[in-house]
Amino acid sequence: MNYKKAIIEKINKLSGCRSPYEVFCDWVKCSAISLQNNCSTHNKIWEEREKQFLQTISPYGESGSEFADMLGILSMALEDNIDDVLGKVYMESELGNKGTGQFFTPFHVSRMCAELELQKEDGKRKITISEPSCGAGGMIIASAAVLNDRGINYQNCLDVVAQDLDWKAVYMCYVQLSLLGIRAVVAQGDTLSEPYVSGKTNPERIFYTPKYMGL
Question: How far, in Å, CA of 67 to CA of 60, rounded?
């Protein structure tokens, strides 16, 4: 099955009165909120995100069920092959913003960088990664792929802090790292002027993967 093609086809199917870009953004936002709220306790942040979820998905009516189908396809894609699926869907659908220079690093380039950086790792120690401009999480995912190919359980040794100014990128990164079982904190904000600091960064701007939360 061509998972990327299947996701792109569903995005186009839903883009009647909305652009494919809007559909994609709504989908990753709803997916991120769904994953986070399903492993969080009910509090003010949970309630606010639940409102955001309903406001985002309600205009789609019954077609909103396609969001769950797309998330299922994404899950199968990552299970089949550790890859930056959302980054590729975003770029192959020509959703990149030329005006702001928003393009994601090709995965083979991320993979090469990860192979060079992790060539001496044997999985016997914790590997911490700080990604200040995470995008869809391509560099982190590439690291997981390299470790996995060496027979190293990346779910046990990777410890990640990822940040991006763009909420869309935060959602994309969070969803993929969650589905891959990577322990990670994904935060929104300008890394230079407001870097993530545990216990100080506004919790409304933070998403924790299920693995981070012990699930």
Answer: 10
Backbone angles phi, psi at 163, to 5 degrees: -145, 150
Secondary structure class of 127 (helix, strand, coil): strand
- What is the bridge-based pairing of β-strands 183-188 and 206-208? antiparallel
Can you give the length of the chain in residues?
215
Provide the whole-model pTM: 0.95
pLDDT at residue 101, rounded to an integer: 55
For position 98, what pLDDT does the model report? Answer: 55
Token pair of 67, please?
């969001």
Distance CA 84, CA 137 (A): 7
Q: What are the distances in angstroms from CA 148 to CA 151, 169, 214?
A: 5, 24, 21
Q: Is the pLDDT of residue 160 over 80?
A: yes
Radius of gyration (C-alpha) of the chain in whole angstroms: 17
Q: What phi-psi label fits residue 199: left (phi over 0), alpha (psi between -120 and 50 degrees) or beta? A: left
Contact 145, 82 (CB under 8 A): yes
Structure token pair of residue 75: 């899950």
| Structural contact between residues 92 and 18, judged by C-beta atoms closer than 8 angstroms | no
Residue 179 has pLDDT above 80, yes or no: yes
The tokens 């993929």 sit on which residue?
Answer: 176
